[in-house]
Design a protein that fits this description.
alpha/beta
């Protein structure tokens, strides 16, 4: 087993629209920043992995164009996942753990503004029974929220407080899209109001992973990945208990999240109701600082928001604000797929 850490993290400023920018334009400043933080050049990276979705770009193999931001020469060892960048990070971590690389560049990006993302996300549903009905992402999240209210796990005022807390925390986040006092608004799909839902926007993120002494040479306080795991729920929503997330709980258990308390958690909860589910599954009490960045309610670039949760957690370990942090990413409707990682600073590991 090798010690692997996140040694650098960068992200773009998240905006409602970036019509003037291509995916490459969006990515290049982020890639330059994350490489600059370590002093590495692109040809010194052992492995490169990206996460994105062709459905957002509206063309097949769109990730090959984004590779222009990395550089076509010299040739690189490269891979791509049609998933949030958090899953690209998992692939890169495996690559390093097997000894095939000592460093890895992971990046992801999403431009949701060109289309209607609520409709685009219906394409990830079961193609025979659900997708033809066109239930959009907000409507499905509303089903989950109503199930939680019916189970008396939450209510609309409690959901409004979750939104207010996250966006108040985002005031200190210069990359956030929504901050401060955001009105609860009208019901978008009952019981969810506009304030319970994430903003639609464009953004990109990147991290660098390194092993052992290489990580220590590149970063004053690496964020060591002490455990990482991902699990998936049944595809059919009708056979799931939407008030719980067994896959999140199992991923956290396998990642070692329950072995010792964490002080910080970055959870990927695009809707306020999903934070209720995740707090229960991850056993996060009031003593844990949850989403100090503002989370996905402050900025939710599709395919990058999960990687950002890992990066934000790592950044707090780098700065010394956190000794043991939990990071969570999700993909699919109603928390269908979930990834959990536990990050620690050097002193916590000693």
């Amino acid at each position: 087993m090798r010690d692997v850490a996140i040694v650098a993290f960068a992200q773009s400023a998240h905006r409602r629209r970036t019509d003037e920018l291509s995916e490459v334009d969006l990515l290049m400043p982020v890639l330059h920043e994350v490489l600059g933080a370590t002093g590495l050049r692109a040809n010194e990276i052992g492995f490169t992995c990206s996460g994105s979705a062709d459905y957002l770009a509206g063309r097949a193999f769109s990730f090959t164009m984004a590779l222009d931001g990395v550089g076509a020469h010299p040739p690189i060892s490269e891979s791509h996942v049609e998933m949030d960048g958090a899953w690209a990070l998992h692939e890169a971590w495996v690559k390093i753990m097997t000894g095939e690389a000592d460093t890895a560049l992971v990046y992801s990006y999403g431009k949701s503004s060109p289309g209607r993302v609520r409709d685009v996300l219906t394409r990830q549903l079961d193609p025979y029974y659900l997708a033809p009905l066109w239930p959009d992402s907000v409507a499905l999240a509303a089903l989950q929220a109503q199930a939680l209210i019916d189970a008396r796990d939450t209510d609309e005022p409690a959901l409004a407080r979750i939104a207010a807390r996250n966006r108040a925390a985002a005031v200190d986040n210069p990359y956030a899209q929504l901050t401060g006092d955001v009105p609860a608004g009208d019901h978008l799909v009952r019981p969810l109001r506009t304030g319970d839902c994430p903003p639609v926007g464009d953004g990109a993120a990147a991290v660098i992973l390194a092993a052992g002494d290489t990580a220590r040479a590149l970063c004053a306080r690496p964020a060591w990945i002490r455990g990482i795991d991902h699990r998936i729920e049944a595809h059919a929503l009708g056979v799931r208990d939407l008030t719980d997330s067994p896959s999140t709980r199992l991923a956290a258990e396998r990642a070692g999240a329950f072995e010792r308390p964490v002080d910080t958690a970055e959870v990927h909860a695009p809707f306020t109701s999903q934070e209720v589910v995740l707090r229960k599954a991850l056993r996060l009490g009031d003593e844990v600082r949850v989403n100090p960045s503002g989370g996905a309610l402050a900025a939710n670039p599709v395919m990058a928001a999960g990687l950002i949760r890992l990066g934000e957690a790592a950044a707090r370990v780098h700065s010394g604000e956190s000794d043991r942090a939990l990071a969570h990413a999700t993909s699919g409707p109603c928390l269908q797929q979930n990834l959990v990682a536990v990050l620690e600073g050097e002193s916590a590991h000693a």
